[in-house]
């Protein structure tokens, strides 16, 4: 009888284990970005580009330095095995101890992609500057509309900026009577926006680059130019097709194009160089700033991928270590260095990022005081 009971228990355990979602993640396995890299964003659902993630980390770092307030942005594919995204956000908030108790405010901005759910949790005391009503407005007006269009990056950026604005004191008049907006003010506001939009459109139309008919140029942006004009004759230039462009790119440039770190386009002036066999081609490189790829000292192009792996976590008592590697995909350039991760300061040990969930569930940090959620 005992053996039969044990067998039944074993079968039940196996059924539960097999049925558990493959992407289930316990709270304490969510990477703590500030402990690992002194950052503020954990993008486990891969919703952000490296450039956007770097921008968010910079904005959130500036907020913490200027005001002491802390915002963590976390994306996951699923919140299982938690009972709900709301519970997951609450548990993660306590696990990390978000917000320094009695000092500053803390916010957890969680996105669960597969569950199509947003949860924003705030620390106790935060509702005085970031009331639940304001959090609901941010979710409904800034985040959800973008997510419904599949623009996750735009929604996350808009939501984060709204939260930063509120915690920076720029929303101090929010709780004043919003019903006092006058119709004429709204009307003229729309007129002003329309005029500004028209001016931007005209300026953009007049800002077509002037390119030398034979040369190279480089810009730090992702948007490619739709029209280019010749710097000599001021006539519109013709864009080369992809196959024709490759023959004009060097080996490092071709490698960067393949990696996606740089995008290249070729422009030809038919008036200055009417013969297609002539060498008159302007190569334009679009190279946005990236954390993932850096310039190779040999190839002189963004062909080096930089990666890091933590080998020892930092604690309040001891610094940590990580291995930073740089590998070029065009030449044999490769280095690997061991760098030190600074020990967590006492200020952080008493608040947010106390080590990624020490025993006590972040009880020394701020308490979860409010927030809101929404679905798309």
Describe this structure in words.
The chain has 376 residues and is α/β, with parallel strands linked by helices. Among the domains are: 21-171 and 353-375, Diaminopimelate Epimerase, Chain A, domain 1 (Roll); 210-291, no CATH class. The chain is built from 10 helices and 15 strands. The chain has helices spanning 2-19, 33-37, 50-67, 85-96, 132-148, 152-167, 183-205, 242-246, 251-259, 346-349, and strands at residues 41-43, 70-76, 106-112, 117-123, 210-211, 215-219, 229-230, 238-239, 263-268, 282-286, 293-294, 304-312, 320-328, 334-341, 368-375. The strands form 4 sheets. A 5-stranded mixed sheet has the order 1-2-3-4-15, with helices on both faces. A 4-stranded mixed sheet has the order 6-10-9-8. It has a 4-stranded antiparallel sheet with strand order 11-12-13-14, with no helix packed on it. Helix 4 (85-96) links the parallel strand 2 and strand 3 (106-112). Helix 5 (132-148) packs antiparallel against helix 6 (152-167). The longest helix has 23 residues, at 183-205. Mean pLDDT is 77; it is low at 10-23, 170-181 and 345-365.
CATH architecture of the domain at 21-171 and 353-375: Roll
Instruction: State the helical fraction.
Output: 25-40%
Q: Tell me, what is the CATH class of the domain at 21-171 and 353-375? A: Alpha Beta
Strand content: 15-25%
> Termini distance?
51 Å
Spans of 5+ residues with little confidence (pLDDT < 50)?
Answer: 10-23, 170-181, 345-365
Return Rg in Å: 26 Å
């Amino acid at each position: 009888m005992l053996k039969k009971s044990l067998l039944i228990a074993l079968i039940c355990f196996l059924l539960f284990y097999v049925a558990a979602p493959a992407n289930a993640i316990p709270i304490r396995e969510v990477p703590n970005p500030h402990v690992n890299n002194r950052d503020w964003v954990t993008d486990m659902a891969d919703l952000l580009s490296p450039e956007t993630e770097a921008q968010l980390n910079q904005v959130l770092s500036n907020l913490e330095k200027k005001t002491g307030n802390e915002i963590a942005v976390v994306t996951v594919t699923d919140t299982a095995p938690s009972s709900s995204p709301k519970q997951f956000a609450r548990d993660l908030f306590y696990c990390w101890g978000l917000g320094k108790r009695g000092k500053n405010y803390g916010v957890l901005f969680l996105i669960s992609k597969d569950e199509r759910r947003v949860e924003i949790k705030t620390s106790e005391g935060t509702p005085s500057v970031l009331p639940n009503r304001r959090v609901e407005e941010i979710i409904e007006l800034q985040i959800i509309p973008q997510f419904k269009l599949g623009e996750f990056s735009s929604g996350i950026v808009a939501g984060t900026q709204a939260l930063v604005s509120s915690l920076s004191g720029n929303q101090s008049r929010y709780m004043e009577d919003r019903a006092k907006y006058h119709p004429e003010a709204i009307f003229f506001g729309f007129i002003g926006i329309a005029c500004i939009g028209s001016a931007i459109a005209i300026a953009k139309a007049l800002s077509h680059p002037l390119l030398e008919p034979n040369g190279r140029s480089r810009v730090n942006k992702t948007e490619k130019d739709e029209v280019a004009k010749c710097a000599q004759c001021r006539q519109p230039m013709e864009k080369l097709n992809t196959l024709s462009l490759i023959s004009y790119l060097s080996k490092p440039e071709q490698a960067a194009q393949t990696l996606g770190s740089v995008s290249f386009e070729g422009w030809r002036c038919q008036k200055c160089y009417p013969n297609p066999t002539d060498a008159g081609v302007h190569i334009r490189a679009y190279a946005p700033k990236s954390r993932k790829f850096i310039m190779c000292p040999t190839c002189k192009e963004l062909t080096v991928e930089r990666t890091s792996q933590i080998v020892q976590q930092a604690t309040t008592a001891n610094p940590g270590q990580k291995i930073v590697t740089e590998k070029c995909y065009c030449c044999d350039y490769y280095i690997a260095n061991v760098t030190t991760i600074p020990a967590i300061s006492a200020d952080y040990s008493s608040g947010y990022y106390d080590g990624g969930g020490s025993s006590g569930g972040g009880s020394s940090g701020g308490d979860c005081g409010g927030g809101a959620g929404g679905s798309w």
